[in-house]
Amino acid sequence: MAAISAWFWSEDFWLPHNVSWADLANPSPGVEYPRAVHLLNAFPLALGIFVFRIFFERFIAGHCAHLLHIQTEVNRRAQPNAVLEKVFTSISKSPDKRQLEGLSKQLDWEVRKIQRWFRHRRNQDKPSTRTKFCESMWRFTFYLGIFTYGFCFLWQSLWMWDTRQCWYNYPYQALSPGLYHYYVTELAFYWSLMFSQFTDIKRKDFLIMFVHHLATVSLISFSYVNNMARVGSLVLCVHDASDFLLEAAKLANYAKYQRLCDFLFVVFGVAFIGTRLIIYPFW
Predict the structure, then answer these.
(1) What does the alpha-carbon distance between residue 219 and residue 266 come to, in Å, rounded to a whole number?
(2) Region 8-13 average pLDDT
């Protein structure tokens, strides 16, 4: 294991020439550099975010949904049937013609009745509009809050206005409390999303989103450990800039404010193109 660890954390790969991990572990008095142990603080914070999310969605977002007359739809539940349930959970949620005909003979049901059963069963697992509204309101609140914090912090940072400052004297760049809190909070949020995926209603993009969250956690963690936190903070802020607008458009859609939804989606599109396709790659 020691050999694998030494290979993975090779200084030739992670650090500039003639810089060692020992150099970053022993900074000058009064100077703090990012350390891997700092990232452990993200786990209790992620748990706290997860618990707060439950409280927020139930008592705050739920109350807002009630004020906007967004109620939980009552989907017609499929009648219990062990054979069809087994097919639904282990074979296919949308059986083809051959499977339908086989089930029809086995159960002595009409094909249309079996198709109707599967439709009701699929709808039974879909999250209600109220559930999706509460989830989007939580994401909107967090994204807006973390973007506001990050933007205000970076506004006072030299590297926001001159990105060359991200590399001056790298990696001997002191870690400020503001940068530490920004990074650890972002990391904790994405850890909380990985936790909540297993308790939320399963969606078709479960695996894709899990890989996305895992990649995000990895990028945040490794960029922190080798002190690329300055450029990393810019990347985080650029990505957060459009996320809250997308969630706002979803909220308007769930509340059936179609004009507002269309307007917000256009603003989101402009912000997304401007930040992720122009600022991010070129600046």
Answers:
(1) 29
(2) 90
Report how far residue 134's alpha carbon sits from residue 118's, in angstroms, rounded to the nearest whole number: 27
HEC readout, the chain: CHHHHHHHCCHHHHCCCCCCHHHHHCCCCCCCCCCHHHHHHHHHHHHHHHHHHHHHHHHHHHHHHHHCCCCCCCCCCCCCCHHHHHHHHHCCCCCCHHHHHHHHHHHCCCHHHHHHHHHHHHHHHCCCHHHHHHHHHHHHHHHHHHHHHHHHHHHCCHHHHCHHHHCCCCCCCCCCHHHHHHHHHHHHHHHHHHHHCCCCCCCCCHHHHHHHHHHHHHHHHHHHHCCCHHHHHHHHHHHHHHHHHHHHHHHHHHCCCHHHHHHHHHHHHHHHHHHHHHHHHHC
CA 3 to centroid of chain Cα atoms: 34
**For residue 194, what are the contacts with CB-CB under 8 A and spacing of at least 6?**
210, 213, 214, 217
Q: Look up residue 119 and give its amino acid.
A: R
CB 256 within 8 A of CB 69: no
**Which tens digits make up the pLDDT trace of 51-108?**
999 999 999 999 999 999 887 766 667 777 787 878 778 877 788 888 888 888 888 8
What per-residue confidence (pLDDT) applies to 64? 95
Residues 6 or more apart from 111 whose CB is under 8 A from it? 100, 101, 104
Rounded Cα distance between 202 and 13, Å, is 39
Nearest to 229 by CA among 280, 200, 279, 186: 186
pTM for this model (two decimals): 0.86
